[in-house]
Amino acid sequence: MYQQPNESGHFGQFGGRFVPETLMPAVLELEAAYNEVKDDPDFLKTFHYYLADYVGRETPLYYAERLTEKLGGAKIYLKREDLNHTGAHKINNALGQALLTKHMGKKKVVAETGAGQHGVATATACALLGLDCVVFMGAEDIKRQKLNVFRMELLGAKVEAVHHGSATLKDAVNEALRYWVSHVEDTHYIIGSVVGPHPFPQIVRDFQSMIGRETKQQFKEKTGTLPDALIACIGGGSNAMGMFYPFVDDTSVKMYGVEAGGHGVETGKHAATLTGGSVGVLHGTMTYLLQDGDGQITEADSISAGLDYPGIGPEHAHLKDINRVEYVSATDKDALFGLKLLSETEGIIPALESAHAIGYLPELAQSMGKDQSIVVCLSGRGDKDVETVKAVLGGQNHE
Amino acid sequence: MSKQQLETRFKQILDQGDKLFVPYIMAGDGGLDVLNERIDFLADCGASAIELGLPFSDPVADGETIQQAGIRALKSGTTVQRVFDTLKQSKDRNIPIILMTYMNPVYHYGIDAFAKACVASGVSGLIVPDLPMEEEQAVTDVLHQYDLALIRLVALTSPVARQKELKKRTEGFLYAVTVTGTTGERQTFTDRVHQYLADLKVGATTPVLAGFGVSSEEQVKNLARHCDGVVVGSRIVKAFHDGEKDVIKALIEASKQ
């Protein structure tokens, strides 16, 4: 049975713990603490209590009938992570790790955020559990996601702007890591995706894997079988990993990860790490990266701030290498098309991140039979993106 | 210079009663044209070895000063290959060069090719701050073949057992990180630092050097009293950038008897 990672935190050749010595004791402490709680009935009871009564789980698995008809191929189901408290799947992990922070006796939390969804989720979990919270966010992303910045501040978090580099998610992770190195003795780093040094990729995956577990159960209840395909968008890859992991051993289920193709992978202006990158080490882990010929990390480019990351979770890199998941890409244009499509056919405005999965859907659905089914992980809602989308589409109906 | 020559040189300096002084400079900051000149200047001032930074786009162990130096170096077209080529131009210099860079540029160049290039350019060893002992084997297997030193970093947060293990594994010297944080000038150090350095000295088979945050003559003297010497980075980088060569001379002088 599939059970990654190994003891040293590697997924095949990927993963590991490439962090400064100052952080190693914290990383080892985290691993020990996580091993204490991961099967502990009391911890899990508390986690599930908050997931049910506070987050609003389980989220529905919704049959998108009009979208199915419109595309004319396989039946499409949406796993409605957009209906979670705070509007995306990010709260699952933030809550799990905030509880873990308390278990370790730490009172302070640092986090990074791209689109702001993980920042909002972390600020929320910290408010709920009485933890201090500082969030690093790229200055460019702060401009793109003003509302989420204000939301974090309302929740009592301190938002620190990062001006280095491309001033997006990668730079926010650098700064959060530097902050963690300097405050490691009383601070836990709640990383927002299945990236970073071991045990983060495993912890985040596990704290997101109710997405896949619920989906399996709900789909069985509705149809008595398993879906034929799963599809999810990928930046660092946490919603996809949460959806895919419980299905890895179900070989009849095909899995598709959709990366952000930006202006198109062939233009070099994209965030499609697995499609257009190569192996290297960034932010504590060995994985696929966007880098130049000298091993310098290059800037990712995507309309979606949450996918704008030049790395990817090491487990995805492994799943690519063992050919268990097919990784594809959708461009900015595809995502905007997906956003409009889902809004108009189902009355659901998806986050720009999730819209990448929808954007790839026509191709996939139409290549499959009408008797087959696809589950889309609808990772977040689109309220935060309305300004960005209006700037591109121009609100053409009223101007 | 080989690993053995590095060790011999350090021993000679310590035997004559001086402390070790290893300045850090960023390759390509100010252009690669000035690199060999800067190395020679530091050698003339009495530096024991040079820690030469290879710029990386995402240096998580570095503070603002060295980050900015790295950005300047990359903007001026510095690449790993060009640094090796520049070093080769005067590889018979009389001072050991230790390269400091992150794992990705080494991995991307190819660990074996990187080690070969180090030997061909007269480099004695490597410091890789994001390579903890848990991940080092793929690198040390290669470095040992080429007789290159891997200098291990030990931190204030390292528990005693890790300190001991790092002390045992390190080659050339033990790099004792004196702050819980990134590189960059500090006004003061935690009270624990003197005891920490003294503990590291017990049973150490290599010299122990204090680094991170060291930026004044007084700090050089103070810290070196409890170990075998210091590494000074951000202050040297800043001094070269601002053209303050006297500051560099005085800092190095502070490590002498």
From TrEMBL, chain A:
SUPFAM superfamilies in the cross-refs: Tryptophan synthase beta subunit-like PLP-dependent enzymes
One of the record's GO molecular function terms: tryptophan synthase activity
Gene Ontology CC entries for this record: cytoplasm
Entry EC number(s): 4.2.1.20
Pfam families: PALP (PF00291)
Residues with the N6-(pyridoxal phosphate)lysine modification: K90
UniProt catalytic activity: (1S,2R)-1-C-(indol-3-yl)glycerol 3-phosphate + L-serine = D-glyceraldehyde 3-phosphate + L-tryptophan + H2O
Cofactors demanded by this protein: pyridoxal 5'-phosphate
Similarity comment: Belongs to the TrpB family.
Function: The beta subunit is responsible for the synthesis of L-tryptophan from indole and L-serine.
Oligomeric and partner information: Tetramer of two alpha and two beta chains.
Entry-linked NCBIfam families: trpB
HAMAP family assigned to the protein according to its UniProt record, in alphabetical order: Trp_synth_beta
Protein name, as recorded: Tryptophan synthase beta chain
Organism listed in the record: Halolactibacillus halophilus
Gene name of the record: trpB
From TrEMBL, chain B:
A single GO molecular function term of this UniProt record: tryptophan synthase activity
Similarity annotation: Belongs to the TrpA family.
Pathway participation: Amino-acid biosynthesis; L-tryptophan biosynthesis; L-tryptophan from chorismate: step 5/5
Organism of provenance: Halolactibacillus halophilus
Protein name, entry field: Tryptophan synthase alpha chain
GO cellular component, one term: cytosol
Pfam families for this protein: Trp_syntA (PF00290)
NCBIfam families: trpA
The encoding gene: trpA
Superkingdom per UniProt: Bacteria
PROSITE patterns associated with the record: TRP_SYNTHASE_ALPHA
The protein's role, per its UniProt record: The alpha subunit is responsible for the aldol cleavage of indoleglycerol phosphate to indole and glyceraldehyde 3-phosphate.
Enzyme active site: E51, D62
Aminoacyl-tRNA synthetase found in the keyword field: no
